Amino acid sequence: QTVVTQEPSLTVSPGGTVTLTCASSTGAVTSGYYPNWFQQKPGQAPRALIYSTNNKHSWTPARFSGSLLGGKAALTLSGVQPEDEAEYYCLLYYGGALVFGGGTKLTVL
Amino acid sequence: EVQLVESGGGLVQPGGSLRLSCAASGFTFSTYWMSWVRQAPGKGLEWVANIKQDGSQKDYVDSLKGRFTISRDNAKNSLYLQMNSLIAGDTAVYYCARGPAYCGGDCYSYFDSWGQGTLVTVSS
């Protein structure tokens, strides 16, 4: 069974920078896994942020960026805002099957 | 504006069945893959199934194959999820989501739009 692993929780100060990562139990994450990132706030539906590693949607704030880092997919927030406090999920493609990571709860403190 | 509105959730006994619907508007429904994603209470997201534009290809998470069936009616701009032999572990909010969508080159965008979800509770 394929497992996608994210940090369970991270804390960052307002204005700071934080990187969330997304690892695959099958090995290094590459662009062929089409990493996507989503943000979810309590009581709301998820919202798409990043697609295919590093592409932003039209509504994605500039402070969010995606990349591949050390064999993992990564989401970096630069200049974190209080409203960025949320759960973040990555999604990887496995040839017809899709697997979400367990999520990272980001606290802005 | 893209809108996805799910319906059909509710309380069902173990072993029962339920059919979820998703009404789409604000885009050309027949040109998009569509998907279902679920989220158990207090838990993470789980992809359930997706269906090609013309319904000719359907993919499911392995753990649900045989119990859940995804379908669509492009004339009605609607997506469906038939759920049979329900168990307590199927209790979740079920989201309808648009995508995957091919974005050129080596690029796919997944779930760029989501509905608000419909809650399915499996309990006696």
Report on the structure:
The complex is a heterodimer of chains A (109) and B (124). Chain A is mostly beta strands and 109 residues long. In chain A, 0% of the residues lie in helices and 53% in strands. In chain A, the strands form two sheets. In chain A, strands 2, 4, 5, 6, 9, 10 and 11 form a seven-stranded mixed beta sheet that branches. A four-stranded antiparallel beta sheet of chain A has the order 1-3-8-7, with no helix packed on it. Chain B is mainly beta and 124 residues long. Helices cover 0% and strands 48% of the residues of chain B. Chain B has no helices and twelve strands. Chain B has strands at residues 3-7, 10-12, 18-25, 34-39, 45-51, 58-60, 68-73, 78-83, 92-98, 101-102, 108-109, 118-122. A six-stranded mixed beta sheet of chain B has the order 2-12-9-4-5-6, with no helix packed on it. Chain B starts with a strand and ends with a strand. The mean pLDDT of chain B is 96. At the A-B interface, strand 4, strand 5, strand 9 and strand 10 of A face strand 5 and strand 11 of B.
* Straight-line N-to-C gap of chain B: 40 Å
What spatial order of strands do you see in the largest sheet of chain B?
2-12-9-4-5-6
Q: How would you classify the quaternary structure?
A: heterodimer
Shape of chain B: globular
Strand content bin of chain B: over 45%
Rg of chain A, rounded, reads 13 Å
Number of strands of chain B: 12
Q: Main sheet of chain B, how many strands, which sense, barrel? A: 6 strands, mixed
What is the average of the pLDDT values of chain B? 96
- Provide the low-confidence segments of chain A as ranges: none
Largest interface summary: A-B, 25 and 24 residues
Average pLDDT rating of chain A: 97
Radius of gyration of chain B: 14 Å
Class of secondary structure makeup of chain B: mainly beta
Tell me the total number of β-strands of chain A.
Answer: 11
Q: How many helices of chain B?
A: 0
